[in-house]
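This section describes the prediction task in plain terms. A model, or a person checking by hand, is given the sequence of a single protein chain and must write out its three-dimensional structure as a string of tokens. No templates, partner chains or ligands are provided. The sample shown here is typical of the held-out split.
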Amino acid sequence: MKTFETSAYAADSRYAMLRLGLTLLVMTVGSSGMYVVSVMLPAVQAEFGIARADASLPYTLLMLGFGVGGVLMGRLADRFGVMWPLLIGALSLGVGYVACGMADGIVSFTLAQAVLVGLLGSAAAFAPLVADTSLWFVKRRGIAVAVCASGNYVAGAIWPPIAQHFIETVGWRQTYIGMGLFCGLAMAALALFFRARPPAVAAAPASHAGHAGRRRDMTRPFGFSMGTAQGLLCVAGVACCVAMAMPQVHIVAYCGDLGYGPAQGAQMLSLMLGFGVVSRLVSGAICDRIGGLRTLLLGGALQGVALLLFLPFDGLVSLYVISALFGLFQGGIVPSYAIIVREHFPPEEAGARVGTVLMFTLFGMALGGWMSGKVFDLTGSYHAAFLNGIGWNLLNVSIAAMLLFRVRHLRLRTAAA
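The expected answer:
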């Protein structure tokens, strides 16, 4: 009988690479809900006759559902394998899109986004797949997780211009219904290829004894208790993604306010997230060399620079350039949290802890999307909203710097002992 180390389903095997490619496709389809709603924002606001903050609320609740659903779907994947959450997600995403297209008001539209698209739909195609990928790779885990997470940005690069095209030709309702049929069927078909369980799960009982010493070393990440360390990562995740949400959620509406039109904004969002794919791949390679914390600090600092550039420059060409820079700078931030958890926490707890930290990054996206709309409603301008994002970004960078300082201090103290 073959062991996991010699079987076709071992870590870093050809099957693991094939699975990674399929994971990229599933995440590209399943993550569409995060970005299409931003493109729909002007049309939904106009049809329902609501304020900008109210029109941003479906995105906010979608992201909250997305975050909570990631933890729920992750636990389901731990117990039954990732295929079943993906099948549930496919059904929910398809039905959710159709329900959005048939919504008779902002309340029913928001509920469909929050529960069907977010909590039960797209959530199955993010945190569970990131955790699953980390269990299929030992060598180059950073780049593998980056490739997986890139599907989220591939979705952001592909879906906004597609959605905008069909909004202009057939209307936003028909666009949602068509996407429901396509995404539901495509995601369900791809889910059937995910029957095999990760080798790390099967090998865990045998590996516990061999790694007992390492687990003891990981009982105080960064020199803190487990709860404190987890809490700091969660706060950092919220802060970085409040800042990240400002351009991602509002760039289409911002371009409309400046007189460039929503189509230009959709192209900028696509450009931003397309460069985010490049950023995630490059950051994954960097992460394998310098570690998760340094990658987080680097990405956070560069994201702050990009946000600052939005303040003095609002010309059409300038916005295209800054959108590309923003995507290039911030794409590797969220995947770095998964690597930090794998580096500093016990590996047998990685699934739950990765899901929790990613949930808080999504809470940050939800809060940032709503908060930016609210600041706009109060001030009549996005200038203050960009300043708000910069302030939150400074909090993320400060936490990352503090954790890195503590790691260095602990290493020096250990070496001197």
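For orientation: The mean pLDDT is 87.
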